[in-house]
Design a protein that fits this description.
Length: 231
């Protein structure tokens, strides 16, 4: 059956392993540095606010959100949401995550093009990623090439989103590493340790991109666009 296609399992296995390793790295690194206090004693919310204000940003609201590491910046509302583990903690792990999200606010203020592209892709990606499988499956079931091609094209949007996310996240991390010291949030000796949390988190985005690429390749193979017909 298509739902348990051995080809899919075989192709996605490397991505599953990679994602598992990346997730373990994030959780273990965050746990390690959540026990180390920042030299300034600032909490995550305070650190994010300091970093933004040192860069002339005063119109971004900081809110506390639910969920472990649910931290994100919403450019449509100019709201920076931090999980309780980050918002209320003065650890190096919390400082790193909070300043990374503040890095997205800096991107927004500086009109960083990849951030605007990713934001524009969000609604399209949400729709295409959920529907592409069903359209492709219908195309295979009814042997309709057009539906298969449409399914592949729709999932290609998801891969594009994952690809655009990489420079967005990398740049936000670079900004956090730069201003976390110059803003007086942590000492230079602590900056490297705080950055380790961000480096580990970035690998999860790489894993997502790899997973999206392998899924797209699988779709192309099953539709016959790669490797010939699936008859």
């Amino acid at each position: 059956m298509f739902f348990i296609d051995p080809m899919y399992i075989l192709m996605m296995l490397p991505a599953i392993i990679f994602a598992g390793i990346a997730s373990f790295m994030v959780k273990s690194t965050f746990k390690k540095y959540s026990k180390v206090r920042s030299s300034s004693g600032m909490r995550g919310a305070q650190a994010a606010e300091r970093m933004m204000q040192c860069n002339g940003i005063y119109n971004v609201r900081i809110e506390q959100s639910r969920g472990f590491l649910s931290d994100h910046y919403d450019p449509t509302k100019k709201v920076l949401r931090l999980s309780s583990e980050v918002y209320n903690s003065d650890s190096l792990a919390a400082i790193g995550v909070a300043c990374h999200e503040a890095g997205h606010a800096l991107q927004h203020a500086n009109s960083y093009a990849p951030l605007f592209l990713r934001t524009a892709l969000v609604p399209v990606t949400n729709f295409s990623s959920s529907m592409s499988f069903y359209i492709l499956f219908a195309g295979i079931l009814f042997r309709t090439p057009l539906l298969m091609y449409v399914g592949c094209a729709m999932f290609a949007v998801s891969f594009l989103f994952a690809l655009v996310t990489l420079p967005v996240e990398w740049d936000a991390t670079a900004r956090a590493k730069q201003y976390i010291v110059t803003s007086g949030i942590v000492s230079p000796s602590q900056a490297e340790d705080s950055g380790k949390v961000l480096n580990a988190a970035f690998m999860t985005y790489v894993a997502s991109a790899v997973s999206a690429l392998l899924t797209l390749l699988y779709y192309l193979l099953r539709s016959g666009l790669l490797g010939g017909s699936d008859d």
